[in-house]
Design brief:
five-stranded mixed beta barrel, 11 helices, 59% helix, elongated, alpha+beta
Length: 377
């Protein structure tokens, strides 16, 4: 039984293969008739419908081969456009380029195709395949047009820039050895620019800490004397500032003012009508509503906060911290300026070298390759 089963299975496979080959031959005959009749639209539509189907790769390649044999330029050009648009996936892309190479078929628009190939740095052989199918003059023109004036500091962009320089040196004999300095300048540009960004982030972080500390340091400290009028525990929840003190709120009559004020204390407790003298910080003003016997209207009242030894120490520590951050930022500012200038110099060197190769140093603006859109740092 097992042997019979094996024989039957093998028969099924053979029949499937024969059927597949017959189907392929049928499609090939249809393609041959359509191409012979010059039905470019139908053939191109057929290719578009089957281009993404792995099992149809052979028939798609047959369409290209038959178009080459029949010299139907409209179909061949469509295949080139599909290459440029990146419609062929992986192995099929290599095979299509291989057919162009076998036929030594020049591309109608090698510049656009080369730019498209440059967008696939993971497969540099595609770029070389395109270059091999161009004349020496066209190859030189394509490579020169592809040289970018770097304008981004991403790692991927940096890698792709260097690949273009190496490709130029490898494919155009007269350029060999001329790109050593350009590769060094690109490394210099990238490392200086990336380091400048790193330091700028650190500078911004320091500045944020300085800015957040200034409100605390801007509060004036001075010796305040007077006497306590009353304690107002009901004010503790109403006053945001009282939350950071965690102590008591007193109504006071300062010695040097005719108006009452509020004193927020962190540790000190007062008896009513007792006199006091302590170091305080000015905490601004807060609106209050007077009692009915005093008119019942709204009024703003001055706020003071107790500043004991612990408060003074915290303020001193904060002052030293801010001073240290300011000194560090002053040094960072110098380093960032130096790195930025190094980056600028490297870009100018690259621009000069590229325009010298292109012979267009007299132009007002040197354009980079369109395959690399402008990117911010």
């Amino acid at each position: 039984m097992k042997k019979r089963a094996l024989v039957v299975t093998g028969l099924v496979i053979v029949i499937a293969v024969i059927t597949s080959v017959a189907f392929l031959n049928t499609e090939t005959r249809v393609l041959r008739r359509r191409i012979a009749a010059g039905d470019v639209g139908w053939v191109n539509g057929f290719v578009d419908d089957n281009i993404s189907r792995p099992q149809e790769q052979d028939i798609v390649l047959s369409a290209l081969r038959l178009a080459f044999d029949a010299h139907v330029d409209g179909i061949v050009l469509h295949f080139e456009e599909l290459l440029t648009d990146g419609k062929f996936a992986g192995e099929l892309e290599d095979k299509v380029l291989g057919e162009f190479a076998i036929r030594r078929q020049a591309f109608a628009n090698p510049s656009a195709l080369f730019e498209a190939m440059l967008n696939h740095p993971e497969n540099p052989t595609l770029m070389l395949d395109v270059l091999r199918l161009t004349s020496a003059a066209d190859r030189r023109a394509l490579v020169l047009a592809s040289l970018p004036v770097p304008n981004s500091l991403t790692e991927m962009y940096h890698t792709r820039v260097k690949e273009r320089f190496r490709l130029a040196s490898a494919t155009v004999p007269e350029f060999q050895g001329k790109f050593d300095n350009m590769l060094a300048w690109e490394d210099q540009r990238f490392s200086a620019g990336a380091k400048a960004i790193e330091l700028q982030i650190r500078f911004n972080s320091n500045q944020g800490k300085i800015d957040s500390s200034l409100p605390s340091l801007s509060k004036q400290l001075f010796q305040l004397s007077g006497y306590v009028v009353a304690e107002h525990s009901e004010f503790k929840k109403a006053l945001d500032q009282a939350g950071s003190y965690g102590g008591s709120v007193y109504e006071i009559a300062p010695t040097e003012s005719t108006k009452h004020a509020l004193l927020l204390t962190s540790r000190t407790k007062f008896e009513y009508l007792s006199s006091f003298s302590m170091m305080v910080e000015d905490m601004g003003e807060s609106p209050v509503i007077l009692k009915e016997e005093y008119g019942g209207f709204n009024q703003t009242i001055k706020l003071y906060g107790e500043c004991n030894a612990s408060c003074l120490q915290q303020r001193d520590d904060l002052t030293k911290k801010v001073d240290g951050l300011r000194q560090e930022n002053a040094a960072l500012r110098v380093q960032i300026a130096s790195l930025t200038q190094t980056e600028i110099d490297a870009v100018q060197n690259l621009k000069g070298a590229i325009c010298a190769l292109r012979g267009d140093c007299g132009s007002t603006k040197l354009q980079g390759s369109s395959a690399f859109p402008p990117q911010s740092h």
